[in-house]
Amino acid sequence: MSDVNADDWVSSGHRPMRFPEFVIVIASIMALNPLAMDMMLPALPNIGAAFKIPVANHLQLVLSTFLIGFGAGQFVMGPLSDRFGRRPVLLGGMAVYAVASVLAVAAPSFETLLLARALQGLGTAATRVIATSIVRDCYAGRRMASVMSLAMMVFIAVPVIAPSFGQAVLLVTAWRGIFVVLMLYGLLALAWSVWRLPETLPESERRSLAPADVLAAFRQTVTNRQTIGYAIAAGSVMGALFAYVFSAQQVFTGIYHLGHYFPLAFAAVAAGVAIAGFLNSRLVGRLGMRAISHGALTLYAVIASVMLVTEILNVLPLALFMALSALMMFSFGMMVANFTALAMEPQGHIAGTASSLYGSITTLIGIVVGMAIGQSFDGTLMPFSVGFFLSTIAALAIVLVVEKGRLFKPHHRSAT
């Protein structure tokens, strides 16, 4: 999209930033989360050796504890931002992220490291919720989905390079150096946001933090069929993705014996998500959110079925596993921004609270599903294949219920 075309429909809510800078800033603050998540993957064996962790599956806690803080933190970030505005909550969250990174660098024990990871997750809860709320403040409908897709394209490219970046850091320093890098990135994103990102929630639209008002907003969010349905469906498909990330290091190094080539394999697979984000931003305005996301969910189910059958038949070599995983990532990338936009569409007047609750529901469901699958890792791909299949079928069933059996077709009341 050119600057001229972008400025034809750019929102005045994020002035003085023009459209390209707005997308980049939103993507950069959203990227705090996947960067902190995926840079750690090649460092897990080093952390296990440093703290003498005897069970390899326990190292997944470095990832899942971060996500627990991320998921739980989202419950409060939305209401706070609806009351006090987007900027103070966002900047506070990024400050917590930076402090938690310092704690991780100095962590004397595995338990302290897990505490630091939970605090990092809490800090990134603000960045995720506020980024979504800011986009919803400025855009709606297919334009919102297009903006989210462009941001996701940059944001989702992070998992492609993060493990390799983490591996590069490990070549010159110990695993604690990764947290130094995370701290420096967090401070850079904080400075950019302080300097350029305006407040997008007018004083006149701020809501009370009175318990009755907050509960009313929560009730309105969870009782909306479209919002809660897509939140649960997104959590289900996210569970399979989390399970893949949690066990990726064990799968690529333990089953397929890739050793230090693991980050390259992970990057090749994750590239599918970035490609999907770009395609979705181009197609969503023409095809609509439902047509794209429902088609992607159907493909997700087909991929899960093929992976399960090939694992049962014991014919799942590395090349096929990577191809199926890349398609899984691609399908997820075509779903995530559209599911988010569909869930948020009816909630414009309580965007912060709705984004908060949506993020918490999807993340916590994803964590529960992902941990259940990841902790079942037994040296084979059977637990992942079964979990991937079941969580995807559950998501498809939920979307069918939400849409009353009618998939792919937009509703006449909205441009979706």
UniProtKB/TrEMBL annotation:
The chain crosses the membrane at residues 19-37, 57-77, 89-108, 147-172, 178-197, 228-246, 258-279, 291-313, 319-344, 356-375, 381-402. Signal peptide: none annotated. It is a multi-pass membrane protein. One of its GO terms (cellular component) is plasma membrane. GO terms for biological process: xenobiotic detoxification by transmembrane export across the plasma membrane. Its main location: membrane. One of its GO terms (molecular function) is xenobiotic transmembrane transporter activity. It is found in: Cell inner membrane; Cell membrane. It holds the Pfam family MFS_1. It comes from the Bacteria. Keywords: Cell inner membrane, Cell membrane, Membrane, Transmembrane, Transmembrane helix, Transport. The keyword Transmembrane helix applies. Residues 22-406 form the Major facilitator superfamily (MFS) profile domain. Belongs to the major facilitator superfamily. Bcr/CmlA family. PANTHER family: MAJOR FACILITATOR SUPERFAMILY, POLYAMINE TRANSPORTER 2-RELATED. This is Bcr/CflA family efflux transporter. The lineage of its organism: Bacteria, Pseudomonadati, Pseudomonadota, Alphaproteobacteria, Hyphomicrobiales.
